[in-house]
Amino acid sequence: MSVKGKKVLHMDRNSFYGGESASITPLEDLFKRFNIPGSPPESMGKGRDWNVDLIPKFLMANGQLVRMLLITQVTRYLDFKVIEGSFVYKGGKIHKVPSTETEALASSLMGLFEKRRFKNFLSFVANFEESDPKTLQGVDPQKTIMREIFKKFNLGQEVIDFTGHSLALYRTDDYLDRPCIEAINKIKLYSESLARYGKSPYLYPLYGLGELPQGFARLSAIYGGTYMLNKPIEEIVMENGKVVGVKSEGEIARCKQLICDPSYAMDRVKKVGQVIRVICILSHPIGNTGDVNSCQIIIPRTRTSTSPLCFSDIYVCMISSAHNVASAGKYIAIASTTVETNNPEAEVKPALDLLQPIDQKFISISDQYAPEDCGSDSQIFLSRSYDATTHFETTCDDIKDIYKRLTGEEFDFAEMERKKQDTFGDCAE
């Protein structure tokens, strides 16, 4: 908005960047936040060595957030490291996720004949172009459901599980009865992201996710935006049903439009679920991953016996001192899933079992909220709460939705990229 010439004032009640998705430092502050008595043990090193994300997320290397960062040139303020592995849990073991035809043939997830069928499926997906009938093989992208595509290639249930949940990154099986183009595009995104760096499709910023909002704040400042931390919000001021300002410490900052997360306007949101996240400090890499310094593991719910009532996958993210977020020799693993029972901790037990022994864990159960209306009448535009996924694709969808509600226009990547040189060509900090 600053780059487009809007006057932007960003107020945050917190003393740190990122709000709900902040990176907490030093480690002592994390202990206080979770009401853990005492101080961190000396074995965990210096508190300032730690930057612990409250909400784990990776960036898809070819995904929407990376495109946004490149277009806006926020990347000038950030350094990234490739996540070293992407795995799926099956049959009590951790397996590398196969996403190319070569990996499919070498994978231990499938038998010989299944490998050949899966290879043909991946070849079909890689070549699939909605605008080119020659690549469709008789498939209607909008009418053929994904279940029929899997049947077309005679893929078994276990292959369908890891394809839908570890490649397309769906949390449930609802996608099976939706137009196949949606899942095909998600699988292509995974494969294209993997092709950029080779080890996995994911990137992670050095010093933690808290670097992302700082980068955007610095860019906004270049174009006249003002960022105020530690600024309490007392009231959203309305006149005739429309927002006209925000009251803080007895003063009113006037505005025509307001963007905020659900916590600032609880009377305008509805609860849509809960997410449990368990932050674990380890003195070892996760077993059976090749001792990598970072990885993602997806545990499809169909592979666990937690509860027959649970359908959402469990995610595990691991990062380490290699990313400047932990002391030397230490690792941070975060398990998360959508809450579906009255015993959330039992729902993530399959993930915690993979992480043993755990030096210290911090458990949070967060309510998820969604705006009750689009905001066009009040001009208050609310975001959705972060979900359990460990990538930013759903968050970027929410950002684009807010942009459309705010401006009345679609967020057009192609147009933004065309304007990139004119807007940013000569700017300097």
Structural features, described:
- This protein has 429 residues and is an alpha+beta fold.
- The protein has a domain at 98-197: Guanine Nucleotide Dissociation Inhibitor, domain 1, CATH 1.10.405.10.
- Helices cover 29% and strands 22% of the residues.
- The protein is built from twelve helices and 19 strands.
- It has helices at 27-33, 64-72, 101-106, 112-127, 146-152, 157-167, 180-197, 211-222, 344-347, 349-355, 393-407, 413-424, and strands at 9-11, 23-24, 52-53, 59-60, 80-82, 86-90, 93-96, 202-205, 226-228, 235-239, 242-248, 251-254, 258-260, 269-282, 295-299, 314-320, 331-338, 360-371, 380-382.
- The strands form six sheets. Strands 7-6-15-16-17-14-18 form a seven-stranded mixed sheet, sandwiched between helices. It has a three-stranded antiparallel sheet with strand order 4-8-5. A three-stranded antiparallel sheet has the order 10-11-12, with no helix packed on it.
- Strand 11 (242-248) and strand 12 form a beta hairpin.
- The two termini are 18 Å apart.
- InterPro entries: FAD/NAD-bd_sf, GDP_dissociation_inhibitor, RabGDI.
- Keywords: Acetylation, Cytoplasm, Golgi apparatus, GTPase activation, Membrane, Phosphoprotein.
- One of its GO terms (cellular component) is Golgi apparatus.
Secondary-structure map:
Layout: E1 9-11, E2 23-24, H1 27-33, E3 52-53, E4 59-60, H2 64-72, E5 80-82, E6 86-90, E7 93-96, H3 101-106, H4 112-127, H5 146-152, H6 157-167, H7 180-197, E8 202-205, H8 211-222, E9 226-228, E10 235-239, E11 242-248, E12 251-254, E13 258-260, E14 269-282, E15 295-299, E16 314-320, E17 331-338, H9 344-347, H10 349-355, E18 360-371, E19 380-382, H11 393-407, H12 413-424
Parallel strand pairs: 1-9, 6-15, 13-19
Antiparallel strand pairs: 2-3, 4-8, 5-8, 6-7, 10-11, 11-12, 14-17, 14-18, 15-16, 16-17
Helix pairs in contact: 2-12, 5-7
InterPro entries: FAD/NAD-bd_sf (IPR036188), GDP_dissociation_inhibitor (IPR018203), RabGDI (IPR000806)
Keywords: Acetylation, Cytoplasm, Golgi apparatus, GTPase activation, Membrane, Phosphoprotein
Organism: Neogobius melanostomus (round goby)
